[in-house]
Amino acid sequence: MIKILYLGPNFGYQAVVAKFNNLAEITDVDSSDSALQNALSDADALVDASMKVCITDEMVRKALKLKIISCATTGSDHIERSEIKKRNICVRTLKEDRELLLNLTSAAEHSWSLLTACSRKLPSAFDHVKSGKWNREDFPGIMLRGKRIGIIGCGRIGTWMGRYANAFGMEVWGYDPYVDSLPENFKKAAFMDLMSECDFITIHVHLTEETKGMISKRCFEVIKPGAVLVNTSRGALVDQDAMLEALKTGRLGAAGLDVLEGEPDIDNNPLVQYAREHNNLIITPHCGGFSPDAVALVSIHATQKIFNELNGA
Q1: Residue 77 has what pLDDT?
Q2: Burial of 237 (0-12, 13-18, 19+ CB in 10 A)
Q3: Distances from the Cα of 94 to the Cαs of 194, 227, 238, in angstroms?
Q4: Considering only CA atoms, which of 14, 11, 8, 23 is closest in space to residue 304?
Q5: In this structure, what are the phi and psi dihedrals at residue 225, rounded to the nearest 5 degrees?
Q6: Residues 6 or more apart in contact with residue 61 via CB below 8 angstroms
Q7: DSSP 8-state class, residue 279
Q8: CATH superfamily of 105-283
Q9: Helix crossing, 106-120 with 122-130: angle to 10°?
Q10: What phi and psi values does residue 96 have, to the nearest 5 degrees?
Q11: SS3 sequence, 128-161?
């Protein structure tokens, strides 16, 4: 019987066991480097629904039986590739499962939540009330109706963001050089025009060598004064030093982030330190796509791909 490791939330593990327990030995692995490295030594496959642990070349080198890593996520930049390529180990992600992803809306919903939380200063307003105060003049909100939102990356999540924006009466601009026809009610915009003309900007692209640092210092120099930026994709898409400076000067009105470069080691991250003392930056712990329903579904799907691969399906 093949041995499959599962790395991720327990409810995903329970769903995988309920579905496949008679077909494989399925082991839940603690989210630590040492636990994963030890467990990989005799595993045939890994289902990764976590992204908390960097899968290093050294881990793979010692995993002599490993044939496939199936990620229950769209991203896989936490996996080093040198040994994987050398051993011809298969790496699968949800990026190849467009039909499945189209019906998963939790990441888009979280992105929209960050946008509205920034526009209404919700965390600091709640802290204000918890401290026994009640002064609404301290928390002027931005009315969304009539504002312009720029969506960078007009795929699955970007399309949902456009739908939400339409429902709120916003004008939707989109930038995506890899999409020939933008979704209905999107206005196609040049990248820098979008940066300089939009009241809200949201980022929904994969991290590649091409996209790394795409929201550059120059972008923050031209960004519409007071604009709100939302990033739920990857931290390295944005020049974090330039974003921090733009927040400090007020050029960037607010930012809502679900991702940081270097996560999950964030104690010394300058953005986290800034957020502790200022109310124009909201950071959540990369939880946008994290809902029990979605995790169970994608964990089962990722595990099925292991059986397909090993059985030559």
Answers
A1: 85
A2: buried
A3: 29, 32, 23
A4: 23
A5: -55, 130
A6: 83
A7: S
A8: NAD(P)-binding Rossmann-like Domain (3.40.50.720)
A9: 60
A10: -85, 0
A11: HHHCCCCCHHHCCCCCCCCCEEEEECCCHHHHHH
Catalytic residue numbers, as ranges: 234, 263, 286
**CA 240/CA 304 separation, integer angstroms:** 38
Residue 203: exposure state from Cβ atoms within 10 A (0-12, 13-18, ≥19): buried
pLDDT classification of 103: cutoffs 50, 70, 90? confident
DSSP single-letter state for residue 224: P
Looking at residue 132, its amino acid is: G
What residue ranges of the chain are covered by domains with CATH 3.40.50.720? 3-101+292-310, 105-283
- Here the tokens at position 147 are 């504002």
DSSP 10: H
State the DSSP H helix or E strand holding residue 7, giving kind and residue range, or none if neither: strand 3-7
Rg over CA atoms, the chain: 21
Q: Which residues pair with 170 in a beta bridge?
A: none
- pTM, entire model: 0.79
Q: How far is CA 95 from the centre of its chain?
A: 13
Q: Is the pLDDT of residue 181 over 80?
A: yes
3-101+292-310: CATH architecture: 3-Layer(aba) Sandwich (3.40)
pLDDT at site 95: 87
